[in-house]
Amino acid sequence: MRFKTGETYHMRSVGDHNCVWNYIVARRTDRSIWIVDADRPNEEPARRAVKRWGSVEQCLPLGSFAMAPVLGADKPGRGVRDWEGAVD
């Protein structure tokens, strides 16, 4: 699965299953995506490298550290609208 521009994806905290982050893919290339926190849609998109785990694209929105949450293309957003500022 690949990240799609304009789509929303979610991830959960390793330590608290009720803690959910939603991110919107603003744009992408083959190796990078630019994401925006769905709670802060007016902020500048952040560029993140895309890695593959099996057939699923993934990235680390909060950085690489022990127990860092992973955003995967196989986890659509939870109850948020897609971003209208997305570009291909």
Can you describe what's shown?
By secondary structure, this protein is mainly β. It has one domain (8-72). Helix content is 0%, strand content 38%. It contains no helices and seven strands. The protein has strands at residues 8-12, 20-28, 32-37, 46-49, 51-53, 56-59, 71-72. It has a four-stranded antiparallel beta sheet with strand order 1-2-3-4, with no helix packed on it. Strands 5-6-7 form a three-stranded antiparallel beta sheet, with no helix packed on it. The two termini are 17 Å apart. The model has no long low-confidence stretch (mean pLDDT 89).
Short characterization:
This protein has 88 residues and is mainly β. The protein has strands at residues 8-12, 20-28, 32-37, 46-49, 51-53, 56-59, 71-72.
- How many domains? The number is 1
* Spatial separation of the terminal alpha carbons: 17 Å
Can you list the strand order of the major beta sheet?
1-2-3-4
How would a crystallographer describe the biggest sheet? 4 strands, antiparallel
Low-confidence stretches: none
- Over all CA atoms, what is the radius of gyration? 12 Å
The share of residues in extended strands comes to 35-45%
Shape: globular
Strand tally: 7
Number of helices: 0
Element-level helix/strand string: EEEEEEE
Q: Mean pLDDT, rounded to whole units?
A: 89
User: How does the helix and strand content classify structurally?
Assistant: mainly beta
Helical content (DSSP H or I, runs of 4+): under 10%
